Amino acid sequence: MAEIDVSPTKNRGVLKEIIKEGEGDETPTFGCKAKVHYTGTLLDGTKFDSSRDRDKPFKFELGRGSVIKAWDIGIVTMKKGEIAILTCAPEYAYGKSGSLPIIPPDATLKFEVELLDWQGEDLSPNKDKSIERFVIVNSEEAYTNPEDGTQVNIHLVGKYNGQVFEERDVEFALGEGEVVGIVEGVEIALKHFLRKQKCRLLIKSKYAFKEHGNSEFNIPPNADVVYEVELKNLEKETGIWSMKPTEKIEQAKIQKEKGTKYFTSDRINLAIKMYQKVFTYLDSKSDFEDLLKEKDNLTLTTRLNLALCYLKTNENLLVKEQCTKALELDPENEKALFRRGQAHLKLASPEDAIVDFQQVLKIQPKNTAASKQISICNSLIKKQLAKEKKLYANMFDKFAQEDKQKEEQKLKEQPDVMHGTLGEWGQEERPGGRDATAFEKENPNILMLNANGSGEFKNM
């Protein structure tokens, strides 16, 4: 097959000749991890490197600068199983300096490459391939990735089993996509997008519609889906570092109000995100000077709200953490003490809980809710003590039984010693070899035999 110029500017910098056709229509994209076999030669046929000689395929990420430019350009045009010759001009290989002593300066190189396979770029938080990305249209921009709070305008097409279930344009603040029906996997992936970039996303169920599925789209529980997403535009928030203290306070209030709105509409996860964002403005190193009281009050109420959210999601260690931090600002805060007491109860620590609830009553003696909680704590403590008492009693009984069995075993292992000497069969032997009479057995100390065994009664 004739050589094809695959260089971006068609300057014959990278020529490709297909030796063996590949399978299907798909090709890898930038960010994918490709697996290849290759043999590299100079124009005179001198071989300088070969993965086949090592019998070990070579793996690398496309478009990350980990290989020569010609490979990034040529391999994205290849199909699975394809074998091709890439002829690489110096500016797409090792340039004027070469790579001595193997590659001379200004060397044109030839590579026979077989594309064995590739995987999408893994964007999942735990790197478990639950969100894989394949770039369809790359962006010419750089370093303009959106982040939480960035206003994004996207076009997306959702597919399940090859069938489109949704297609639309949507604009939203990144991190709040749940409000407009954006699945978590798309939001996570968008943080890696560039403006004008279009990608195909393979999203596992845990970052899509989870165990619930989506009846509107006829998607069953635990279903994996595919999205094609184009980031049409983005508008980043003003950098916190450039804000004045008054602006930071104002932004913190906005995020807190958003959190409260989401909380009241039962979008607890979104509320948590918004409340957490408050601290990105308030925990900065700015000197808030005259705004310190307002800052502390905003911090306190946000921590109390976060604690309430975590109570709802049953994350009781986080409840304790937020309440304890709130109490550092206001040691006699009823809500912080009460919510921390609730967390202690859920963590099966009624002894710790009762301390917090009793403190609430010291501050506000008429707090009936705290009184009820104290009754619950006392009841639980009583039950725990009864349970422990029964447990220990059973343990002592068990130990006593074991001791008794050990003692009995020791007695069995020792010879029986009675009044007189026991014979081989356990009978008390009498002089002359006869057995003891019934009278003798009943009165063993009365009979005293004389030396010749006559059996005279003495000392009657």
Notes on the structure:
The chain is α+β, with helices and mostly antiparallel strands and 460 residues long. The chain has eleven helices and 13 strands. It has helices at 51-54, 69-75, 184-190, 245-264, 268-282, 292-312, 316-329, 334-346, 350-363, 368-413, 438-442; strands at 4-5, 14-20, 33-42, 47-50, 58-61, 83-88, 109-119, 121-122, 131-137, 151-160, 163-173, 198-203, 225-235. The strands form two sheets. Strands 1, 2, 3, 4, 5, 6 and 7 form a seven-stranded antiparallel β-sheet that branches. A six-stranded antiparallel β-sheet has the order 8-9-12-13-10-11, covered by helices on one side.
Keywords:
single chain, 460 residues, alpha+beta, six-stranded antiparallel sheet, extended, disordered C terminus
Question: What is the overall silhouette?
Answer: extended
Q: How do the helices and strands follow one another from N- to C-terminus?
A: EEEEHEHEEEEEEHEEHHHHHHHH
Instruction: Tell me the structural class.
Output: alpha+beta
The termini sit apart by 135 Å
Main β sheet profile: 7 strands, antiparallel
Number of strands: 13
Q: What is the mean pLDDT?
A: 88
List segments where confidence is low: pLDDT < 50 over at least 5 consecutive residues.
417-433, 446-460
Determine the number of helices (DSSP H or I, runs of at least 4 residues): 11
Work out the radius of gyration: 42 Å
What proportion strand? 15-25%
Instruction: Work out the helicity level.
Output: 25-40%
